[in-house]
Amino acid sequence: MSTDQAAVDKSAVERSAVDKSAVGTGVRQYHIGIAPGEVGTVALLPGDPFRVPLVAEFLTDVREVAHRREHRTMTGYYKGRRITATSTGMGCPSTAIAVEELARVGVTSVIRVGSSAGLQPGVEPGDLLVSEGTLRNDGTTQAYVHPGYPAVPDLAITTELAAAARRLARTRGGFAVHTGINASDDAFYAEGPEWIAELHRQGVLNVEMESAALFVVARLRGMRAGMICACSSNLVDGTSVYDEKNTRLKDGWAASIEAALETAVRLEL
Ligand SMILES: O=P(O)(O)O[C@H]1O[C@H](CO)[C@@H](O)[C@H]1O
Ligand SMILES: O=c1cc[nH]c(=O)[nH]1
C-alpha cells in the first residue's frame, strides 16, 4: 500500500470512528448508572463509596440512586437544595469517567470532599485543605489537554469553601483551615521520600489523587469544580500515617462535607 493510500484509509477510519465526546447524552450512564432527572445540579464527590452515606447523614429525603463499580450515588436535600453525592473511586481515570457522566445527566457543579496528605509542617490530621490549584502528576489529564494546561478550581466555589470551613473552625474549634496548591499523583505507593521532599520544597500544601481530572474535565465540559479535603496524615512530619483509628480524619470528613453543603446553598449551585 502506498503512503497516500494509507493516509486515505486512516482518515476513512477516523471518519467512522466513535466520537466518545458525543456519546451518552440524555441516557442512563454506562458506569455511574444514573439517568437524567435522577440527580440535581450539584454533586459532592468523595473517593470512597462507603463515604457517600456520610454525606447522606446531612440530608433529608435521602434516596440511593445507583451503585455500580466504585460509583455509588445518593440524593437528598440540604436547607432546601437538592444535593447529590457520587463516589469517584481512587485516582484520575475513574474520576474523569464520573465527571464526564455526571455532566451528561445535568450536573453543573462538582465539589470533591476527599482525604489528602499534608506536605508542610503544621498541617495536621483532621485539618481542612481547600485547593487553589493542582500540580498534574497524573496520566489521565495528559490524554485530555496540553502539558501546560492548568488544573484549577472555580474561583467563587473555592473562596466560599474556605470561608465556610473557617466559620466551622471558629464555632467548633479543634482543626485549622489551609488553602494552597496540591498535587494529584497516580501512584500512592510510589510517592517516595525524594518526591515528597520535592513537593514540599516547591511549597505544595498536600497531595491526593483525583483533583487533576476533576478540575480539567470539569473545565472542558463547562462545569464548576472545587475541592475540600480532610488531612489524613502528614508525610513530612510523619503524624498519624495511615493508622486505623484516625478519628481526627473522620471528624475532618464531616466538617469538609458541611463546608461543601453550605457552599452549595450560598452559591445556589
Ligand atoms: O479518601 P479519598 O477521597 O479517596 O482520597 C484519598 O484517598 C485515596 C488514597 O488513600 C485516594 O483516593 C486519595 O485521593
Ligand atoms: O496521594 C496520596 C493521597 C493521600 N495520601 C497519600 O499519602 N498520598
TrEMBL record:
It comes from the Bacteria. It holds the Pfam family PNP_UDP_1. Belongs to the PNP/UDP phosphorylase family. Residues 41-240 form the Nucleoside phosphorylase domain. InterPro entries: Nucleoside_phosphorylase_CS, Nucleoside_phosphorylase_d, Nucleoside_phosphorylase_sf. It catalyses: uridine + phosphate = alpha-D-ribose 1-phosphate + uracil. GO terms for molecular function: uridine phosphorylase activity. Keywords: Glycosyltransferase, Transferase. One of its GO terms (cellular component) is cytosol. It comes from Georgenia muralis. PANTHER family: FI09636P-RELATED, URIDINE PHOSPHORYLASE. Its EC number is 2.4.2.3. This is Uridine phosphorylase. GO terms for biological process: nucleoside catabolic process.
